[in-house]
Amino acid sequence: MAPRTLFDKIWDHHVVETLPDGTSILYIDRHLVHEVTSPQAFEGLRLAGRRLRHPEKTVAVVDHNVPTSDRSQPIEEEDSRNQIETLERNVKEFGVPYFPLLSSSQGIVHVVGPEQGISLPGMTIVCGDSHTSTHGAMGSLAFGIGTSEVEHVMATQTILQRPARNMRVTVEGTPGNGVSAKDIMLAIIGHIGTAGGTGHVIEFAGSAIRGLDMAGRMTICNMSIEAGARAGMVAPDDVTFEYVRNRPFAPKGDDFDKAVAYWRTLASDEGAHFDKEITLRAEDIAPSLTWGTSPETVVSITGTVPDPEQETDEAVKVQRRRMLEYMGLEAGQTIAGVPVDVVFIGSCTNSRIEDLRAVAHVAAGRKVAEGVRAMIVPGSGLVKQQAEQEGLDKIFLDAGFEWREAGCSMCLGMNPDRLTPQQRCASTSNRNFEGRQGPAGRTHLLSPAMAAAAAVTGCLTDVRELI
Amino acid sequence: MEKFTSLSAVAAALPEANIDTDKIIPARFLKTTKRTGLGKHAFDSMRYHPDGTENPDFVLNQLPWRHAEILITHDNLGCGSSREHAPWALLDFGIRCVIAPSFADIFFNNCFKNGILPICLPRELCDALMEDARMGSNARLTVDLPRQVVIRPDGKEIPFEIDPFRKHMLIEGLDDIGQTLLHEKRIDTYEEQVAHDRPWVPTISID
Q1: Which of A120, A344, A407, B50 shows its CA 20 to 30 Å from the CA of A440?
Q2: Alpha-carbon span B185 to B178, nearest angstrom
């Protein structure tokens, strides 16, 4: 057999049937469900009188709408409450396993999946959410789907797909002090652009990727979609297997050993073909952030805001001018030193315990700058518990951070956590689109350590000056 | 799903690249449990001023483009969030066909599931169609799916590519699920095989 990539192997293992025109019916091992993109799918099943084929391969959680403040009170926003209650009725009716709001296991679906051992290497995993790419860090094929496809998976446990093209992004070397997985991924997106991965699945490889812990790999795969890719993946290795071992829903004992033996066969073969290849040096990457309203508008913290007039494409020039106006920045301005109003630490990109430790490392013994609102929203109830066991909550509260309950929160502002117009936010989330964190809000994407640095200095700051 | 065969309609030009699905429908409007009713919020931040009044400079607020059924943009249309609310909002507004030099993958798929035809054409042809679109209601574009051509107001035809399976599904207005369930026996067989090959794959149950 010809050498195959990690993607090719998982694909081949899940093809139920290939139709004459080349479309495949692809089997789905895990279907993750949340309250925003599922109600119309459940309704579709009901209207057609169809069953949900495999509730035991499906897991539901509430995350997008949930309040991150005191949960002993009823949810104030009626439409949010309705969406959550609708999910609760649906999971009951169709027998879907569910982590309810008040469970310590509740959290952001892309944090909960790996944390619980629900997402495993070699699996096909889908969810009605583009950041499903996160789970590719496990060495799985994981991608976001629309609600019609959610209904399709519910009814058939399969999805109709054509194989994606293979792309490999290799990052070699050792990242410098203060450079995290987030900086590496921002550098990649800045390099290839928001459509650089369109039509492809990206395998992340190289010593800098291998050297990341699972949280770092999840940050990288999470933002594959910001590079336009359908999915991101990292070949499963001993770091993966040690992470998976003893997770609540992972195979145990003899089954675990058999699983590992299988997972070890999945890495891309020597000589496997990639349609597109990019290589970066970790040493060339500085702590980075975005200046504009597209994730590809990346600049090093030592850099300046680029000048739209330098763009050759007229349409790009117009769009860049608009970005500067929206962001309240000027061409040529030094990015370090720009004052921030809000710091948001959270989201499926950066809300894991490792991220919170990086924040605590910067925040310890310091205070949130006057006039800055700094929120920390852990990715799950279990992340929150772990942080509290390690005493991180005390560091955060002493420094003046808000220490909140788990959910998607200000990444997209479906709950009350929103920016007000023109507020500038240093955010560990994944999208800086216009209005993403609240109408007319201004978002700078950056790493947890950089967000912490912004919180304690009150402006965009090179974290290397603080550690 | 409504069938798509041929469409002769006003087209609106939105000459921007990377129009993300947050821009097509912001997250605060995703709290619905229905597929319909989102049209009034399509392109909310571009269509309305912060006080809720219409922005008269935005093309979809101007006649005849308020009644546009075709939308033409630049590269990477529909990037970002997987929300199917984006095509739902377009459809509810009245858009049945989107034309761009390139599309984000998930949005492209989601269009087909809702009877919206996404057509990929080179940038210079999109720019030419935008020029046609700016002539308004005197210059309707015709999209003929069976023949796979866009017909310009002067009668010139621009051929486009489409996956044959998807073309068939659109023309017949077919439901994917019904089609896949025709292969249910194959799915059963696959499941039996995997249960044998990888018996350690756990199932989920939460008390």
Answers
A1: A407
A2: 14
CA proximity to A185, closest of A108, A348, A303, A296: A296
Amino acid, single-letter form, for residue A207: S
- Flag if B163 and A436 touch (Cβ within 8 Å): no
Count of CB atoms situated within 10 Å of the CB of B146: 10
- Yes or no, beta carbons of A228 and B79 under 8 Å apart: yes
At B112 the three-state DSSP class reads helix
Both structure tokens of B126:
């999109």
Name residues whose C-beta falls within 8 Å of residue A352's C-beta, 6 or more positions apart in sequence. Answer: A111, A215, A218, A379, A383
Return the residue of B nearest to A255 by Cα.
B200
**Is B202 a member of any domain?**
no
pLDDT in tens, B132-188: 999 988 789 999 999 999 999 999 999 999 999 999 999 999 989 999 999 999 999
Number of domains in chain B: 1
CATH code, domain with B17? 3.20.19.10
Residue type at position B144: D
Cβ distance B204 to A56 less than 8 Å, yes or no, reads yes
Mean pLDDT of chain B: 96
The two tokens of residue A78 are 């009626």
Task: Establish whether A411 is an annotated binding residue.
Answer: yes
A348 in a labelled binding site: yes
**Structural domain boundaries, residue B119:** 6-174
Q: Which SS3 state, helix, strand or coil, does residue B204 take?
A: coil
ipTM: 0.94
Tokens 């025109």 — which residue? A21
Does a structural domain hold residue B75? yes
Q: Pick from A18, A66, A149, A290 the residue to mutate for testing the B interface (most B CBs within 10 Å).
A: A149
